[in-house]
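Lecture 7, part B: from sequences to assemblies.

Below are the input chains for today's worked example.
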Amino acid sequence: MKNRKHSLAIIPFRDRTGLEKHFARMAEKGWLIESMSDFSWTYRRIEPQRLHFTAACYPKASEYAPAPSEGELTFREFCAHTGWQYACSWQQMQVFYNDREAPVPIDTEPELEVQTVHAAFKSHYLIYNLLQLAAVLLWLAVSAQEFWQHPAVNLAASGWLLILFGIVCLALIPIGELTAYFTWYWKAKKAAKNGILVDTPSTTGYQAGLGCAWLLAFALWLLELALGGRYDSLLLLIFLLVCCGGAAALVRGIPRLLRRWKAPKSVNRVVSTVGGAVVFLALVMIIVTFAVAVFMERRFMP
Amino acid sequence: MPRAKFQTLTEQMFYVLLCLKNECYGMDILDRVPAMTGGRVSVGSGTLYNLLEQFLAEGMIRETKVEGRRRSYLLTDRGRQMLDREYARIRAQARDYRTVFGEEDPK
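Predicted structure of the full complex, as structure tokens:
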């Protein structure tokens, strides 16, 4: 019998209410969340039980620190005092569980809670989504420019429309997340003045729909290339996809690896930032080379 | 209109400061507030942690002892002023209530 279980990170970092409900459902099935990353979550087997979960924010937590700070540990001790056991962290989020019937919530002042959540989200999540959006919009701009240079040829090729569709899908993911976050933030700020905390909206269905649409567009594109006998382009595309995946894994993996090696926070921050920039530049160069290769292939195609 | 920071104190802020009239470990406040209010008011651990940080930054409390991660705090004069102002506000509200309803017991 397996004692560990892995799953994809199916609920966004922003959706604290969704995360808490999901972990409570998993605990009822006998799985307790043990570790989280941007891509995957790990659970460990427990006796099925009813647990309360809280995804609390600790804005000063750093993904570059080799170990939790004294402040972070004090925060966890405070929570343990009221029965909230630490489960795991994900960036500035700390997940706690409590087996008491009606525990005192970790956050009991909605105004303070909204301030804390916003401070935590500003330092990671919002920047991450804005960068993602900027990168996709840049890609869209480059593709649109290329499209307008040869509109007739491009319109005739279904591959271009699929690329465009895929890019729009990718852009809609951070747009949806940012919209959901700010809609929640303004509502929560207002409601908190009356002592009410607003639940975070779920975008899991929206994201899954966009992800499926993107995968479908991509599969159709691959199929079109394969049926058209354009195996060079097909291989280039798969290579590009592997590069994107590798780049993402490297960018997220560098700070985790340095953290595991107990590198000092400042060293981790510098190495991760420089490493991330180098990976990004390398990826841009690969994409440009890829684009030029495709362009040349088209231009000299009989 | 945004409310100025600590212009008025919430019930939880009020009781946290009240607990610190005498030197007290941060974590002990989590038990003292429900004990003081007969269980009517409880402060969440995350809320208390953030409030202590903010009160320290505003000079409303000061750290008196550090033993490992256990820290004890004490109310400062500024903190006392804030409490007094809040108490005056609550008394004024009670006075206004009596002006309208007299000395009759609330239903």
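Note for the exam: The beta strands of chain B are 24-25, 61-67, 70-75. Keep this in mind when comparing with the next example.
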